[in-house]
Design a protein that fits this description.
The protein has four helices and 22 strands. It has 347 residues and is mainly beta. Mean pLDDT is 86; it is low at 1-16, 25-39 and 333-338.
């Protein structure tokens, strides 16, 4: 088969590079000629040549996603300010997981099972999902990427289950970052499986001593620093003076992280994820981690949407969906511009 395109005779064997050239040309044309309100997606190389996807929204916000781990490593607002913490010592070299951003913990959170700490999804190479199932459209944004993970032979040996994990990462018109996970049991032998899960989000903060978390007060939690014993949170908000590693149970769908110094509030919205992990390693554990700066604990806080206490069980053909939406809004207690309860209840 031969055909003429753009004045050149092309063979069937050259069809793929030809399509890529046309795609690249149209993408570049869209960037230059499309109205400023059109978001776009860019594919490029990241650290150590690892492939990444850059999402850009028309107002200036952006996000970067590595195919290794389906790992969001950057989320910037329309002023170019980085909203996620990424360690200066993060290792971008498989099979080491990337320290910071938003690691995906699946099919296990923690190190209590037979798998590696936090499962294997965060240190596998994902692929672009060319044929994703329909996703609910609740945003006008076109700045999104669909990724998919299927078990490798090694994964099947350690975790003998068939699954498809589809993940959509999107930027909303206002700069909100949205991650929607769909995990389906594709086992043809009638075998169910169970898993635990977390979006291990590292937020960038000015100073951990200036941060408070609202929405988790009075809730029960499992303390990982005390053998996962169960306690009830006291006080009207979480503040931080030492290491913390807690799994809060039956949490609300919205949690607020207030950074007094930066006059910024992160709002975490979640669906299908009943638990929330709050973690900061503090000084001793920070120094013990090779991929974490000694003083970097001061500038990060993990608040993670999760499903841990009650593992999710899927029968063959069943699908679970877990959604996370992150937004950052200006706030100032000094000027009275923000009531955190109003953020939790009304935003």
């Amino acid at each position: 088969m031969r055909r003429r395109i753009g004045g050149e005779v092309q063979s069937a064997q050259s069809k793929v590079p030809e399509i890529k050239r046309v795609y690249d040309f149209l993408l570049e044309k869209e960037k230059t000629s499309a109205p400023s309100s059109s978001p776009y997606v860019e594919f490029s190389k990241g650290v150590n040549g690892l492939e990444k996807v850059i999402l850009r929204e028309s107002r200036g916000s952006s996000a970067e996603v590595y195919l290794y781990g389906a790992h969001v490593t950057s989320w910037k607002n329309d002023h170019g300010e980085e909203l996620l913490f990424l360690s200066s010592k993060a290792v971008f070299k498989p099979p080491k997981a990337i320290r910071g951003g938003i690691p995906i913990c699946f099919p296990q959170f923690g190190g209590l099972g037979t798998l590696d700490q936090h499962g294997f999804a965060r240190n596998r190479f994902w692929t672009i999902d060319d044929d994703p199932p329909p996703f609910p459209t609740n945003t006008l944004s076109k700045a999104f990427v669909d990724l998919i993970l299927k078990p490798s032979e090694e994964d099947s040996k350690n975790w003998p289950h068939s699954f498809e994990y589809r993940l959509r990462i999107a930027l909303g018109p206002g700069g909100d970052l949205m991650l929607t996970s769909r995990i389906r049991n594709t086992n043809s032998e009638g075998k169910p499986f169970s898993f635990t899960f977390a979006y291990h989000t590292y937020f960038s903060v000015s100073d951990i001593s200036e941060v408070r978390v609202e929405g988790l007060e009075t809730l029960d939690y499992l303390d990982n620093l005390q053998n996962r014993d169960r306690f009830t949170e006291q006080g009207d908000a979480l503040t931080f003076e030492s290491e913390v590693d807690k799994i809060y149970l039956s949490t609300p769908t919205k949690i607020a992280i207030i950074d007094h110094e930066k006059k910024r509030t992160f709002v975490v919205r979640k669906d299908g994820l009943p638990d929330a992990v709050v973690w900061n390693p503090w000084d001793k554990k920070a120094k013990a981690m090779a991929d974490f700066g000694d003083d970097e604990y001061k500038y990060m806080l993990c608040v993670e949407a999760a499903a841990i206490e009650k593992p999710i069980t899927l029968k063959p053909g069943e699908e679970w969906k877990g959604r996370l939406e992150l937004s950052a809004v200006p706030s100032s207690y000094c000027s009275g511009q923000l009531d955190p309860q109003r953020v939790l209840q009304g935003s």
